[in-house]
Amino acid sequence: MDPLFSPLRVRSLTLPNRIVMSPMTRRHSPAGVPGADVAAYYRRRADGGTGLVITEGIGIDHPTAVDCVKAPRLHGESALAGWRHVVDGVHEAGGRIVPQLWHVGPLWGAMSVVDPTPTPLRPSGLWGRVGRTGYPQRYLTWATTPTAAMTERDIEDVIAAYVRSARNAVDVGFDGIALHAGHGYLLDAFLWDATNQRTDHWGGDLRRRTNFPVEVVRAVRRAIGPDLPIFYRFSQHKQQDYTARIARTPDELAVILTALVEAGVDVLDASTHRFDQPAFDGSDLTLAGWAKKLTGAPSMAVGSIGLSKSLRENGIPEPASLDEVYRRLSDEEFDLVAIGRLHLADPALAHTLRSGGPLPAFDRERHAGVLF
């Protein structure tokens, strides 16, 4: 059987194939409310045969969750009605869909005009180390000014906000939950030593730095029950510094990921700029491969699949062979492949791959998401 088109079951969710639409920020939801255009956008990918759609990041029910007025929310009567329309459309097309719950944490202000209010939520009041980044200097000057560290009340409020939004997702009819815990956003900020320098229960050594994301996962698991799956996106790189790492060795990565799986995570979504890049010296294993090897949990690879280079690199990407995807799937190194840019360029990507059709030639307006 074609490894891309074999089914996979995760708790109560059965996927017809291993192709996932990767979450991508779209900013097409005025006042946080997804409209008919958003519903049509997601349905096109379900109509195109994609096994699972993971939505763009959706702000949880907290005032500092997202800083863009056109980023969607998962609370409020109008927003929930909009998401019901999205979910119903995907289901009518035979698809499955989960929302990616999001709190931007230290990266508040990166998507909007810099506004000093409200104060961004940061574990220790720190934005992080500035390294290789795409942010402009104006934002960096503002963002790197330290703020107050999160209080115990802040932490309790955010956990409760994740719970409310997770329950809303169940009520709307989503098929599971995805948590955005990479790229320097709030959950990830507790893992990174450049943003978490606390000395209490929520900081210290690596194991203690996992406590906050673990508590969020536990709370979400209790809220949604035992049937629906939880997908968890993590990364080494940060928006603050593409070269940053939360784990320098496989043993350190095991500390983080084992705790998360024990708390209730079902699928580990390993976000990288290139899916086939070795995660650690001395091994060809990718970050998704290490996630599965260390925990035994299903893992998902993501990063420039079907493209010769990341859009962050110089030059124009060309369509790239999927031989490495097939090889690693066949070897059971990982279980799912999350594809972003190609899903923008070709909504029927899954049908294209099944039929052996050519991948779309690079078009910046489509691959870079200018067109909706």
TrEMBL record:
It comes from the Bacteria. Gene3D superfamilies: Aldolase class I (3.20.20.70). Transmembrane segments: none annotated. InterPro entries: Aldolase_TIM (IPR013785), OxRdtase_FMN_N (IPR001155), YqjM-like (IPR044152). Its cofactor is FMN. The keyword Transmembrane helix does not apply. Keywords: Flavoprotein, FMN, NADP, Oxidoreductase. Pfam families: Oxidored_FMN. CDD domains: OYE_like_5_FMN (cd04747). Residues 4-356 form the NADH:flavin oxidoreductase/NADH oxidase N-terminal domain. PANTHER family: NADPH DEHYDROGENASE C23G7.10C-RELATED. This is NADH:flavin oxidoreductase. It comes from Nocardia vinacea.
